[in-house]
Amino acid sequence: MDVFMDKLVVTGGTPLNGTAKISGSKNAVLPIMTASLLAPGRYTLTNVPDLRDVRTMGKLLESIGATTRYTQNQIRIEVNGCRNHEAPYNLVKTMRASIYVLGPLLARFGEARVSLPGGCAWGPRPVNLHIDGLKRMGASIDIVEGYIVARSRRLHGARIPFDVPSVGATAQLLMAAVTARGSTVLENAAREPEITSLAQFLVSMGARIAGIGTDHLNIEGVDSLSAADAVIIPDRIETGTFLIAGHLTGGKIRLENAQPEHNTAVLDKLEQSGARISTGDDWIELQSDHKIRPVNITTAVFPGFPTDMQAQWMALMTMARGTSLITDAIFIDRFTHVAELQRMGAEIILDHNTAVIKGVRQLTGAPVMSTDLRASASLILAALVARGKTDISRVYHIDRGYERIEEKLKQLGADIRRDVEKLIT
After folding, report:
1. What is the pLDDT of residues 2-40, one digit of tens each?
2. Residues 66, 399, 60, CA angle at the centre, nearest 5°?
3. CATH code for the domain of 95
4. Out of 91, 97, 120, 297, which one is annotated catalytic?
5. 30 touches 56 (CB < 8 A)
6. 10: part of which helix (H) or strand (E)?
7. How many domains does the structure of the chain reveal?
8. Is 120 a catalytic site residue?
9. pTM (two decimals)
10. What distance in Å separates the CA atoms of residue 340 and residue 39, rounded to the nearest whole number?
11. In terms of domains, do 39 and 18 share one?
12. How are strands ordered across the β-sheet holding 17-21?
């Protein structure tokens, strides 16, 4: 039997110029979709990116009993018919964000059975912070045949200090706490824009949350919530990726539907590396003369440099005029893209969670393979500036987090197309 898979074919060397519109944030819409499980009614979410992960989350909600309808970057969700409290393995295994249904199911039904999550192929991201927090709120939790089985007649408030400011655990416990009895305090909570967006959505449903935007969230549980609508914030990682594409190719681009305040760390580093940046309330412009200065980065929680931009920054630094260091302090093993960039002529030495990149005069096109979502983006960026043609396989990774990336890059002048390759005969 023949097996086929999409690939991207990129011929590099063309400066990017023009205007592109940034899509809604994948990492913001997914928890908001699961928050709809907290209260019956109809929800309308707009500025929603058309991504594999969003479609998967829709199917997961439907398996629980919701109905979803996706049209032109808008999702309508109705959860009146939800009766099921199980999130099955066949859906959860493809996307780590599926774990977000655990708290809302437990809060609404008093029980939940959620498969341990899958998703990207790199590194362990344990769910212990989610489980420990729910236990503090009174849930009994067991791991049975690969499923998290949780029960609680009604969750109660608790003080939950995080050892590390986990985005996933903060979102999970925030959703669980809004209808818990009494007060919940999340200390050392994540304060990424996606968490702020979720908290604001919960408030629009009737939740009582203080400290939004800080690392200290106070939630006073309410007896019930009601359905609400939301506009999804722009994707700050797509924003950073496209800015690097403009800088790397020596172009001039304008990004609309972009929020500069969500990207301050990346914008600062881009300016240090030689890019000229200007911003407005909802747009960012970058101009580059292709003279890229080496700039060191260490990933950090927001508002620091995001780990989701580490691979893309590495692609930029492969063409810098000197040597730079990249240290990922969030995920120490997130470097599967190094070997693929080396295939294109990059000079990179990896030492534990630090990469030493010596800039080269020219990258060369080669067949490469995507290994995870952000690694895929780094390979596309490198291909845009490489001499000759680059075939990038396994682009289903990129489709999880970037909406029609090849079409947007083509609008900016890139020589890029989607093709099909035969894997097995």
Report:
1. 667 889 999 999 999 999 999 999 999 999 999 999 999
2. 15
3. 3.65.10.10
4. 120
5. no
6. strand 3-11
7. 2
8. yes
9. 0.94
10. 46
11. no
12. 17-21, 252-256, 283-287, 276-279
